[in-house]
Amino acid sequence: xNLRPGTPTDLLATLRTNNxxxxxxxWYGPNAERVEFSGRVLENWVAKTANxxxxxxxxxxxxxxxxxxxxxxRSLVWLLATWAVGATATxxxxxxxxxxxxxxxxxxxxxxxxxxxxFDGASPSPLVVxxxxxxxxxxWMEDLPARTLDxxxxxxxxxxxxxxxxxxxxxxxxxxxxxxxxxxxxxxTSEDHPTVQQAPRRVLLHVSEGWxxxxxxxxxxxxxxxxxxxxxxxxxxxxxxxxxxxxxxx
Length: 250
What we know:
By secondary structure, the protein is α/β, with parallel strands linked by helices. Helices cover 29% and strands 20% of the residues. It has helices at 8-17, 39-57, 73-85, 112-118, 151-154, 211-223, 239-244; strands at residues 23-28, 34-38, 64-68, 88-91, 106-109, 127-130, 148-150, 173-177, 180-183, 202-206, 227-231. The two termini are 26 Å apart. 41% of the residues are buried.
């Protein structure tokens, strides 16, 4: 009998050690982009991003990281890295805007100029990090506004293994999404998901379902040793795709 990982740290350790070469995240994006990550590679991306958050942005438990990003494999990496650090992630729906009225320490964004404008006058103003979405884009290709960091250009230089200096309290806020607040002890445990691992599933998810549906479904699939296929809005979940990806649940 295997127990499900109960914390983000446990989940990342599972990705790294439990059948680490098996696919855990497959992304279908614009322009026929398909990217697949094994558990080891996904955890490596998270570790590099967590080290980037700590080393470059001074993130720690209690830091608020605003994800001004669409649902995407990169935003899932940022979420997992934020939780590895013990910080709080503030998310938005695709049609919503990140609110500058609440405290935000770091903003990861695909539109750095707009992010600077949105937080103009905030005290203190958040650190703005430009995030390029295409998998093969190694740096931000456009001119960066002043006081903006380039995530894709910098993250690869960071260590492949992450060890947090401090763990967040179980009651600390992990995820704020609209009116929904999720603490660290609620991320991977609920009445609907027992503590014992279930049979691994390959789950099909679509970004149109929104953060509130996709993120818990992905976490639970990974906690059970399964994998996720995430489709961008421009990709149709056809039967051919389901068959080729061996989808067991959607």
